[in-house]
Amino acid sequence: MTTVIHPPSHRFLPAAWKLIRLRLLISINGFKHAKTIRKILSIVAILGLLAFAGGIFFLSWLLLNFLRSPMLTQYVGLDVTPFLQAMPVMILTGLFAGVLLSSFGVLLQALYLSGDMDFLLSSPVPIRAVFVTKLLQAVLPNFGLIALFGLPVLFGLGLAGHYNLLYYPLVILTMIALALAAAGLSALLVMLVARVFPARRAAEILAFIAGILAFTCGQSGNLFNSLGRSTSLSGTQVSNMFTLMVRFNTPWFPLNWPGQGLVALGEGRWLTGLLLVVLTLGLSAIAFMVSLGTAERWYYSGWAGMQVVTHRKKPLRSSRSSGKIGVSLPTAASKKVPVFGLGKLLPAPVWGIIWKDFLLLRRDLRNLSQLISPLIFGIIYSFMFIRAGGEPPAGQGEAPGWFMESLRFLFQYGNIGMSLFIGWWLLARLSGMAFSSEGRNYWILKAAPVRAGYMLTAKFLVAYLPTLMLGLVFLVALSLVQKIPLAVFSYGFLVVAFCLAGMNGILLAFGTGGANLKWEDPRKMSAGGMGCLGQLVAMLYLPLGFGVFIAPLWLVSAFGWPQGYGYLVGFLLGTLMTGTCAVLPPWLVRGKVERLGEA
Amino acid sequence: MTGLALIEIHNLVKRYGDKIAVDNISLDVHAGEVFGFLGPNGAGKTTTIKMIVGLLQPTSGSVSVGGYDVQAQPLFAKAASGYVPDTPNLYAKLTGRELLRFVGDLYDLDRNQVAQRTDELLRMFDLTAAADDTVDSYSHGMQQKASLASALMHDPRVLVLDEPTVGLDPKSARLIKDILRQMADRGAAVFLSTHILEIAERMCDRIGIINKGVLIAVGTMNELRALGKAGEVSLEDIFLGLTGGAEEAEIAEILK
After folding, report:
1. Which value, in Å, is the radius of gyration of the alpha carbons in chain A?
2. Which homologous superfamily does the CATH classification assign to the domain defined by B5-219?
3. Contacts of B137 in chain A (CB under 8 A)
4. pLDDT tens string A533-549
């Protein structure tokens, strides 16, 4: 039987449209099959975003109208016109840089690590169409986010400046052109990196750096405050900023041309405006087309290179494989012989799980970034605490004396509080996601003859040991700075050790209850509703556990009784409470461990 | 079959809501036997296997492995069995050697013997050169072999495999077939599901066919031939005849 094969169209646009339509279909299906509450939330979110954009537009319009008013110049003596002219330059440069940087990670994922690449590359579709679709898919969310802030401001500027009508469509066109050019360049950068490093490793390193940077930037405000540098801007600083922005608006920097061209067009300086805008659009188109052309040459080879698994060939330690088919099964390893030393303390499966978890935590950089965050957080807040001299803030002086006295008493134990707080942060990740982190590999544990109690013990220790270690480091450091006596430090150590154990038990239990084993990206392994509930309970537990240890000390000091009684009662009550929290919640969920992954 | 029954399944049922995935299955697999479990996609093979190895709780019925009830004495039953899943999800950031050491710890094996056995298994599966590379750098076939090596680490009396030859090159597939045969010759019970009827026909002492959750036939090749229509000689004919795929096969023949 002969069959006539009709080759599909190799034209770029129909092929690209097919792929884009596929993406749209997937999105529409995702929405259609979502739960009603999710649909409602999505609609509310979209309406919220539109309202937000409208709000920015309105505020920009009002503010820019105010800044443009002649009275401002007359009475304040500040001419903001150069600043207003520099504003589109700043926004469009920001858009270009933002898309270029933010697209890198998304494109790395979309071009090299997404699961549909085999399918798409084996289909009779031009590689260029695959590339463009992936590019759009990766860039649209980032572009949308930046446009959400930038577009209303640019439109507000146009209205306030009474710019002509041509300005508005050209703003949109320029933004799209710049975003595409930036995305194209970003894609080339991705391909260059993927040619040198394995894409998966590059993605892990990127996620690690991004996580650390985001966290450090997020906390930098607090650090500046502690250094006594106000984060609010003074008049001089604003004036300096204006000057800097105006100075940045030089005609020699190509990224300034689109902004300058749009302002010139808006103000009716047609020749300059058209020249700069056409130049921008032309250069953007060239950048995009060059990246497309290069992509066609690089993309396939980059992708094919990823399929090759290279191994460092090592000399075989013993006899070589004979190459002969047919086997001789090795004899069985016997059950464990009694061992002495550390191995005797815990059963082999518990040691095995602990050892495996520590290896995985250390090797996966995406995990590591989440684990380093508490360390950065701890360093910043300890620094702030030390700079404050371990004294509570004075406030406005209106607080009653007993309150300030109690606060001062509590601040004596700031070293313990700090250690607990850092410990909580670390435990939220290590303990709350102890079972979720197993993911699809959980079958290995479940099919093995390992008691639920052993698994819980191992997971408890995997979370507890590094947290206790970190807590102890901060406790020692802060205690040394505060010159705390050894006896008080020892008590503090017990408080930290027991409070963290209790919190670990609570978080482990809730994390087990809501374990999610079906994740692909470790950043999406969070334990959902149960995990959040666990965090809330841990938040309530932390001051309670701390309070039970410390309250008797406060009472004996208030009534003038011997301090030893305070320590004894605090220790007994505290260990009872925290010990119960450490043991009881995991014990309650032991049955759940045996049934995990059966939904 | 004279050997001791190492897998005993009695009236096994698994329901997901209204859907019955496995419907009242009963069968035994004996020591020294390779048992092939066949069925179309979605017939309930993987669900049955997961209940045998204790990954899923049955709705009703019971499974015994090595004489131990999987629900009542799960640790003993699991200690007696080795399992190879259809998709080898292994810890991506462990090396092959570390993975086997970890499995040795889970089964509480002696550390020195684990090291020795690890070397032997790695050599047997031709993984020695990649032993210190992380699993995420392994090809699918290498991961499948690492998964099988893990299952053999404690020399189980019962070996349960879900599509063990999928994605393997002919040499590796042959290796696995040889290993399974040798396991059975040494007195283990081997339970494997497969879509490759040739493997089932040539390797398995007995075959069970499941369709829509119901075990519709169990027996040796000769017993199955007796069940089929006259002229159905190959396992493919019998399988299609029993599972209702014969009409589709005829259409496919016309289209050739």
Report:
1. 31
2. P-loop containing nucleotide triphosphate hydrolases (3.40.50.300)
3. 309-311
4. 888 999 999 999 999 99
Please state the pTM of the whole predicted model: 0.71
Cβ–Cβ of B103/A444 closer than 8 Å? yes
Distances (CA, A) of B236 to B42, B195, B212, B216: 18, 10, 18, 15
Q: Do A448 and B123 touch (CB under 8 A)?
A: no
Query: Which of A110-114, A459-463, B219-223 shows the lowest per-residue confidence on average (mean pLDDT)?
Result: A110-114
Inter-chain Cβ pairs, chain A and chain B, closer than 8 A: 157
Collapsing DSSP states into helix, strand and coil, what is residue A11? coil
Q: Is A443 left (phi over 0), alpha (psi -120 to 50) or beta?
A: alpha
- B146: distance to nearest CA of chain A, Å? 12
- Across the range A126-133, mean pLDDT stands at 80
Q: What gap in Å lies between CA A227 and CA A206, rounded to an integer? A: 30
Of chain A residues 384-443, which have a CB less than 8 A from chain B? 439-441, 443
Residue A3: count other Cβ atoms within 10 Å of its Cβ. 5
How many CA atoms, within 13 angstroms, populate the side-chain half-sphere of residue A519? Answer: 17
DSSP track, A390-406: T----TTS-S-HHHHHH
Please, which residues 159-218 of chain A have a Cβ atom closer than 8 Å to chain B? 200
Best to test chain A binding among B14, B76, B105, B153 (most A CBs inside 10 Å): B105
Contacting residues of B for A327, CB less than 8 Å apart = 124, 175, 178-179, 182
Cα distances (angstroms) measured from residue B144 to each of A523, B147, B203: 27, 5, 19
* Full DSSP string of A436-487: GGGGGGHHHHHHSS--HHHHHHHHHHHHHHHHHHHHHHHHHHHHHHHT--HH
Question: DSSP letter string over chain B?
Answer: --S-EEEEEEEEEEEETTEEEEEEEEEEEETT-EEEEE--TTSSHHHHHHHHTTSS--SEEEEEETTEETTTSHHHHHHHEEEE-SS----TTSBHHHHHHHHHHHTTB-HHHHHHHHHHHHHHTT-GGGTTSBGGGS-HHHHHHHHHHHHHTT--SEEEEESTTTT--HHHHHHHHHHHHHHHHTT-EEEEE-S-HHHHHHH-SEEEEEETTEEEEEE-HHHHHHHS-TT--SHHHHHHHHHT-HHHHHHHHHH-
CA distances (Å), B181 to each of A23, B92, B173, in order? Answer: 48, 30, 12
Which among A446, A462, A595 is the top mutation candidate for probing chain B, defined by the most B β-carbons within 10 Å of its own β-carbon? A446
Instruction: Return the domain boundaries, chain B.
Output: 5-219, 224-256
> Does A64 score more than 60 pLDDT?
yes
* pLDDT class of A6 with cuts at 50, 70, 90: low
The answer to whether the CB atoms of A447 and B55 lie below 8 A apart is yes
Q: What is the ipTM of this complex?
A: 0.86
Among A331, A349, A446, beta carbon nearest to B105? A349
